[in-house]
Design goal:
Blueprint lengths: L1 H10 L3 H23 L31 H37 L1 H16 L2 H11 L4 H12 L1 H15 L2 H8 L4 H37 L11 H8 L7 H31 L1
Length: about 280
């Protein structure tokens, strides 16, 4: 009996990743195909239909300019999720590369890279992103660049000790003594050791990047109106929250589901890697 309870307990955590994967697939489908399936233009105002409550015609109602809240939420998914995904991938590549290279270099090169990592890590990331975006007068993609420049140390710091330990193993030392180059050693010995760590961190970093983009959008940073973005939509809906809560609820639910699904997948993958 106790054995059966143990097996049930062991399988329960994997409900999380399947739920996270399912929500991720749905959200990506909405972001990619949703705007094409909706006949309503999310950018065109229609003052005759302004401030409509949810109904059969307007599923989530309309905003103060008569734009469909549903169409804007779906269109905002492509921008918010796409920017968060681009920032996460670029951050993972940069941070993992720095972590692997510092482990391989050793000595002064290692200390210099880790010092840069610690310096960037100590800076307030959102403030730096706002500074980069405003200095270069950029849109949402300058926000992505700012996120990459401020969030890569998380990958570097976590990958460095794992890669260093892997490169000190006998097979990695044998590769060095046989004359194999750094790229081979990093690809053959260091990367397999950090791969699971990178995947789990990336899933969690995606959630953080999405929240950062939404927070900056709420503040009006990096946006090119009237392009919808979930954080900016929440800011636009605040004055009408009492009369039309659906205006705020739709983008807020999108942010919640996206961050929740990414967190479920990242935590489950981390637990699986640790148990194996």
């Amino acid at each position: 009996m106790s054995h059966e309870r143990g097996e049930a307990h062991a399988s329960t955590p994997w409900l999380g990743p399947w739920l996270g994967i399912a929500m991720t697939v749905v959200l990506l489908a909405v972001a990619l195909a949703g705007p094409a399936l909706l006949a309503t233009d999310p950018l065109s105002p229609d003052l005759a239909a302004a401030s409509q409550s949810p109904s059969g015609t307007w599923l989530f109602g309309t905003d103060e300019l008569g734009r469909s809240v549903l169409a804007r939420t779906v269109a905002g998914a492509r921008l918010s999720l796409g920017a968060a995904l681009a920032a996460t991938v670029a951050t993972a590549v940069l941070g993992t590369g720095v972590g692997l290279l510092s482990a391989e270099l050793g000595g002064l090169g290692e200390r210099a890279l880790l010092a840069i990592c610690d310096t960037v890590y100590a800076c307030p990331s959102l403030l730096l992103v706002m500074l980069v975006t405003e200095l270069f007068d950029g849109g949402i993609w300058m926000v992505v660049v700012g996120l990459v420049l401020t969030r890569w140390p998380a990958f570097a710091r976590l990958c460095h000790p794992v890669a260093r330990a892997a490169l000190q193993q006998p097979d990695a030392e044998a590769s060095r003594l046989l004359g194999f180059g750094r790229s081979y050693r990093l690809r053959r010995h260091a990367w397999p050791a950090v791969r699971s760590t990178v995947v789990s961190i990336a899933a969690l970093q995606f959630a953080g990047a999405l929240l950062s983009i939404a927070a900056l959008g709420f503040l009006g940073v990096g946006l090119l109106p009237p392009q919808p973005e979930w954080g900016a939509m929440i800011a636009e809906a605040l004055p009408y929250m009492g009369d039309q809560p659906a205006m705020l609820a739709a983008p807020a639910v999108g942010i919640f589901l996206a961050t929740w699904s990414a967190t479920l997948v990242g935590e489950a993958y981390a637990d699986r890697s640790a148990s194996s």
